[in-house]
TrEMBL record:
It comes from the Bacteria. This is Copper oxidase. CDD domains: CuRO_1_CumA_like (cd13861), CuRO_3_CumA_like (cd13906). Pfam families: Cu-oxidase_2 (PF07731), Cu-oxidase_3 (PF07732). It comes from Azospirillum palustre. GO terms for cellular component: outer membrane-bounded periplasmic space. Residues 78-179, 402-493 form the Plastocyanin-like domain.
Amino acid sequence: MPHRPASALSRRTLLRAGGAAFAAAALGGTGLAAPDAGALKAGLAGPTPVTAAGELVEVELVAKERMLRILPEPAGPSPLITYADSFPGPIIRMRKGQRLRATLVNGLGEHTSIHWHGIRLPNLEDGVPYLTQPPTKPGERHVYEFTPPDAGSFFFHPHCNTVELLGRGLAGVLIVEEPDAPKVDADVVCLVKDWQLDKTGKFGTFMTDRGASRAGTFGSVSTVNGAIEPVIEVPANGDIRARLYNIDSTRVVDLRVEGAEAWIIAVDGNPLPPRPLDGWPMGPAMRIDVLFRAPPKAGQTLRLTNVYSAEPRPLATFRAVGPSLPNKRFKPRALPASAIPEPDLKDAPIIPMAFSATAVAQSFDAAALPGLPYADALCLSAKTFWAINQQSWPEGGHERLPPPLVTLEKGRSYIFELANLTPHLHPIHIHGYTFKVLSSDARKVVPHHADTVLLEPKERLRVAIKADNPGDWMFHCHIIEHQDTGMMGYIRVA
Ligand code: C2O
Ligand code: CU
């Protein structure tokens, strides 16, 4: 819902991400010589940085199909769906305190909306069709406007038919810079995403019953910033901040920068006391910011790898370029603290949230019934495999809203006990809030803030919030096939 502070209009900067024309204003005070200079060279047209100097950052996001190349020749370009003329695109960079006004233009054949993942924003701007706004129909526009309260690495994506739309690339990056962040020599974005493509460049099936009822359907091609094993150039001997995003719909990754000492400095955009990067699995939608020193001489390389699977997989190469920057001591400093309200744990009721397979889906084994239309045979909705507190989101979209999972009293603190009753991983995401991650019955938890937490099989994990942000907020698994087949609900804060 547009609110238009008149004072901001005079100082606005208009940026257009949908068309070819891109008016990027000066990098007012960001302290970055060339954001994403390296990543720009990595595949396709590269990410499109959007930065602005004024109080208001305006951007137009035209969601539509665009033919873009993911696979090398002889494969053809692929019919991606994007918010800009490239993948990834756009990368919106703004400073903490700036206001964002983003206009979604729906150039798709279906309704859509934009959800601003990880941002503690007013409920009306949250972008969930039917729950927080009417769906934006084909040809329509919708204006979002808010001032992100926290710095960090965020992103945005649609919230209906996400399995196909995100599968085809519909996502963008929103970076909110700390005014007083420790200086770095380069700040790069790495978006890890698989694509479901055949050899010719055509998209395959994004959702299968077999995948949806288990770990999900994995893509066939792994990329960083839409490129297969790209080379990302970084200044030789420079300190590099890399914002590592898992924007895949299915895959869990555990990233390493091989050959360098790398430190995690933020999780889901939230500052973390620096700790070595050696085991921080990220489910879909999870992000970490890492800091590392680029190799001292031009031409030397480091590797970004995913070590989650038995076979470590190379994802990208960081290659040092340019004259060696002067030697300085490499010492990761903590990012400035965010202002996430501290939950009062003494006074906090414990809300159980149980993630399970639906009773009927549990009772059959699809593998044992090859070729059987088991869903029909069992009168089970083919699209409901999962539940939260035994409640499944109704099949077929958001039109029929179920009651909230729980209603919380505004201003009180709550502990959610997230119980995974399944043998699969589930990255659990809350809208409009940032969890304080407290403890697990299965592992030692590093205390941190996050908007998405990876629940291990059979694990019970406790997270807390202070319920200060009123509204109806989605609460769901971010493995998109799980989300779309029932593992989704919402909490009400009133
Ligand atoms: Cu990125 Cu409802 O989620
Ligand atoms: Cu899940």
